[in-house]
């Protein structure tokens, strides 16, 4: 059971909102911190005396705020432990991305740490965003609620987002989906027939490939190096394979982490046009920069034949379950029909939440960006200490490290571990095998979990390597 110190709590609370009673501000801020995972379920809150000393509030104020937490189900009192933070009903199992590992996260009752997932938790304030969207909901509750292409406010917000990034876009070019995978599937079905080829860099994000293979696509691979996409090899593969579609990840490639400059984006777009191949550009990680915001154009700025897919899952929260397609106008009708063959629209409330966030200029929260950057640097330093023979990259963005191992034993390491779930390199291979010299290690998880996982990984590696 973790314990939140008074100093840590003071830092998380920030400045008090003097427009409301102090107990109410403290209660609502604490509830938000617990609901958004900043204070973890089961953590012991500081004693009332410690909070009084740190915040300078009265004992009566602290007592009332803690009582409100207990009454609302966000805390409980335990003999000998004090006040313990809790999620009403307890955290729900699962919630990780489904990688093809033969399962979907830990089995029920398992205490294994899941490092197969690279996604951040909901940022502080997400609860408030839903409450604000609820006030807008009555306008839409008077209708049947079907918006197959997306709500107009969200399509406008996404069009403005791309236009600001240097890719002029109208709302008629935006199609809202239930996630990036739905976007990839809809785009693929619209432009390729069963049995036609899709080219992808290897390694790649496996679920996007699965979305196209489920439609009957045949796959072909071109390698990506540690410095990013190799334009000469891509040009050669396009000429040899003549694929109908190519999956492209120019922005903090998952899992390699590389970012392409404008020159290589322009070259890639030109090679796709020359081959008559439709590029599906996955921008899921585009906003996940950690050091300096990239000064690059969206790849679709270099060709009118590229389909762009995006998602709110990494930049905002996976629980929103929203993605989108930015389509060229000559493909918009075909992709819209394909999308409507899958379902009749994404949830209205979540669309309102995302539209408000985009209109406010909100992408990855600054606190989340700083936390990810700190975790990345800490993990690299810990790997150098525990496993100096490993060679992790240092990505300028994204959510994970791509580690080169001294021996091709990635799958053996994943099998050896019982307390940690890992995605070996072969998970990301287009062919489904190989890449045994590599391992993806997400750093988006809570630091306490990572501090527990890395020594276990090091211990298992020494057994496997021996």
UniProtKB/TrEMBL annotation:
Q: Per UniProt, what is one GO molecular function of this protein?
A: pyridoxal phosphate binding
Which keywords annotate this record?
Aminotransferase, DNA-binding, Pyridoxal phosphate, Transcription, Transcription regulation, Transferase
Q: Which family does it belong to?
A: In the C-terminal section; belongs to the class-I pyridoxal-phosphate-dependent aminotransferase family.
What does UniProt list as this organism's lineage?
Bacteria, Bacillati, Actinomycetota, Actinomycetes, Micrococcales
Source domain of life is Bacteria
Q: What is this protein called?
A: PLP-dependent aminotransferase family protein
Q: Where is the HTH gntR-type domain?
A: 20-88
């Amino acid at each position: 059971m973790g314990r939140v110190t008074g100093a840590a709590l003071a830092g998380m609370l920030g400045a008090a909102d003097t427009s409301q009673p102090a107990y109410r501000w403290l209660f609502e801020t604490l509830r938000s911190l617990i609901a958004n995972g900043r204070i973890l379920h089961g953590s012991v809150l500081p004693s009332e005396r410690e909070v009084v000393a740190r915040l300078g509030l009265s004992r009566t104020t602290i007592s009332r705020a803690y009582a409100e937490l207990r009454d609302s189900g966000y805390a409980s009192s335990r003999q000998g432990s004090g006040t313990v933070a809790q999620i009403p009903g307890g955290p729900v199992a699962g919630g990780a991305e489904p990688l093809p590992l033969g399962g979907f996260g830990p089995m029920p009752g398992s205490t294994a740490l899941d490092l197969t997932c690279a996604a951040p938790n909901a940022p502080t304030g997400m609860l408030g965003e839903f409450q604000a969207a609820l006030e807008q909901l009555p306008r839409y509750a008077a209708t049947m609620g079907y918006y197959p292409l997306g709500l107009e406010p969200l399509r406008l917000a996404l069009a403005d987002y791309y236009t600001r990034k240097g890719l002029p876009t109208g709302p008629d070019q935006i199609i809202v989906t239930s996630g990036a995978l739905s976007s990839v599937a809809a785009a693929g079905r619209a432009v390729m027939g069963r049995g036609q080829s899709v080219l992808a860099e290897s390694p790649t994000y496996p679920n996007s490939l699965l979305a196209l293979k489920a439609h009957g696509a045949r796959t072909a691979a071109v390698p990506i190096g540690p410095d990013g996409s190799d334009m000469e090899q891509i040009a050669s593969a396009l000429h040899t394979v003549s694929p109908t579609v190519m999956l492209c990840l120019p922005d903090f490639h998952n899992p390699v982490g590389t970012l392409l400059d404008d020159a290589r984006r322009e070259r890639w777009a030109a090679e796709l046009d020359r081959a008559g191949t439709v590029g599906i550009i996955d921008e899921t990680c585009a906003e996940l920069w950690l050091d300096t915001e990239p000064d690059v154009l969206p790849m679709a700025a270099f060709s009118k034949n590229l389909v762009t897919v995006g998602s709110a899952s990494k930049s905002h929260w996976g629980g929103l379950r929203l993605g989108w397609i930015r389509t060229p106008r000559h493909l918009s009708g075909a992709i819209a029909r394909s999308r409507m063959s899958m379902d009749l629209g994404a949830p209205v409330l979540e669309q309102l939440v995302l539209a408000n966030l985009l209109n406010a200029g909100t992408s990855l929260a600054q606190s989340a960006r700083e936390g990810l950057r700190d975790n990345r640097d800490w993990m690299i330093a810990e790997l150098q200490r525990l496993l100096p023979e490993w060679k992790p990259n240092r990505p300028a963005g994204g959510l994970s490290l791509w580690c080169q191992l001294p021996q091709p034993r990635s799958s053996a390491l994943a099998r050896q571990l019982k307390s940690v779930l890992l995605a070996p390199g072969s998970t990301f291979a287009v062919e489904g095998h190989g890449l045994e010299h590599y391992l993806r290690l997400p750093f988006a998880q809570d630091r306490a979990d990572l501090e527990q996982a890395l020594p276990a990984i090091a211990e298992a590696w020494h057994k496997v390597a021996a």
